[in-house]
């Protein structure tokens, strides 16, 4: 079985700078991968290369298909991206924003297939935003907009789900809920990649890790393989140690003095 996502020698340049340099990686179907790295390491750019927003050299394959050979709608059925930017300036209702997640399946007219409404309502219910479905998205808080955008991502029902710093505006309750949904999507066989700053959240919920440093892939694999003291020192300039949390018994990362 081919990986959910496979990158071969990806390089991306912009403004005379090399943002990503010769990155090759693969993420299995059914995995929840954390994409790690300091600010400016290239996490967001990597996700945008996977779904074709950024044209890069090398090869991007999703579910065995080269995205260069796919139409826009075919790519959208394969890959969805939840951006970290929640600024929505148009006066759409929250329901309308989530409905746009069904765009890849529309054939004629503005609204799509039979059953789309059920999918939209379920996505909004799952993310706790159904109560303000008819409220303008410009009238709700940043955290609520984040949840609306996640509902849109769920409604898109793609095989690969990309989350770019998805918990930036969320309180603890919804951070936990979003990452639990990430695990659920992986259990359903989807490939989920999340760019994450909070390494302990990544440790709690992700099963695979990719560590970027200055546009290059520094490490990939399990927590122990990726978050070694040497890798953390190189990527973040910090002395760290993995340890077993005595309460939930999962791995956590401590920053040492």
From TrEMBL:
The keyword Signal does not apply. InterPro entries: AAA+_ATPase (IPR003593), ABC_transporter-like_ATP-bd (IPR003439), ABC_transporter-like_CS (IPR017871), P-loop_NTPase (IPR027417). GO terms for molecular function: ATP binding; ATP hydrolysis activity. Keywords: ATP-binding, Nucleotide-binding, Translocase, Transport. The keyword Translocase applies. Pfam families: ABC_tran (PF00005). Residues 5-239 form the ABC transporter domain. CDD domains: ABC_Iron-Siderophores_B12_Hemin. It comes from the Bacteria. PROSITE patterns: ABC_TRANSPORTER_1 (PS00211), ABC_TRANSPORTER_2 (PS50893). Transmembrane segments: none annotated. PANTHER family: HEMIN IMPORT ATP-BINDING PROTEIN HMUV. This is ABC transporter ATP-binding protein. It comes from Wansuia hejianensis. The lineage of its organism: Bacteria, Bacillati, Bacillota, Clostridia, Lachnospirales.
């Amino acid at each position: 079985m081919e990986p959910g996502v496979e990158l071969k020698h990806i390089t991306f340049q912009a403004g005379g700078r090399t943002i990503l340099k010769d990155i090759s990686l693969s993420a299995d179907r059914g995995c929840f991968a954390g994409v790690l790295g300091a600010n400016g390491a290239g996490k967001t750019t990597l996700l945008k290369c996977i779904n074709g927003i950024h044209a890069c050299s090398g090869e991007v394959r999703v579910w065995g298909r080269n995205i260069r050979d796919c139409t826009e709608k075919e790519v959208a059925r394969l890959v969805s991206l939840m951006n970290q930017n929640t600024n929505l300036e148009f006066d759409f209702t929250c329901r309308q924003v989530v409905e746009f997640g069904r765009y890849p399946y529309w054939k004629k007219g503005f609204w799509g297939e039979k059953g789309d409404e059920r999918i939209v309502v379920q996505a909004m219910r799952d993310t706790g935003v159904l109560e303000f479905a008819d409220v303008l998205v410009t009238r709700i808080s940043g955290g609520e907009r984040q949840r609306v955008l996640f509902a849109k991502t769920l409604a898109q029902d793609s095989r690969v789900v990309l989350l770019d710093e998805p918990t930036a505006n969320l309180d603890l309750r919804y951070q936990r809920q979003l990452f639990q949904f990430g695990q659920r999507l992986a259990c359903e066989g989807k490939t989920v990649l999340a760019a994450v700053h909070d390494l302990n959240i990544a440790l709690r919920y992700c099963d695979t890790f990719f560590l970027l440093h200055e546009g290059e892939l520094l490490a990939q694999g399990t927590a122990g393989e990726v978050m070694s003291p040497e890798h953390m020192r190189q990527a973040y300039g910090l002395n760290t140690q993995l340890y077993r949390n005595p309460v939930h018994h999962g791995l956590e990362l401590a920053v040492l003095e």
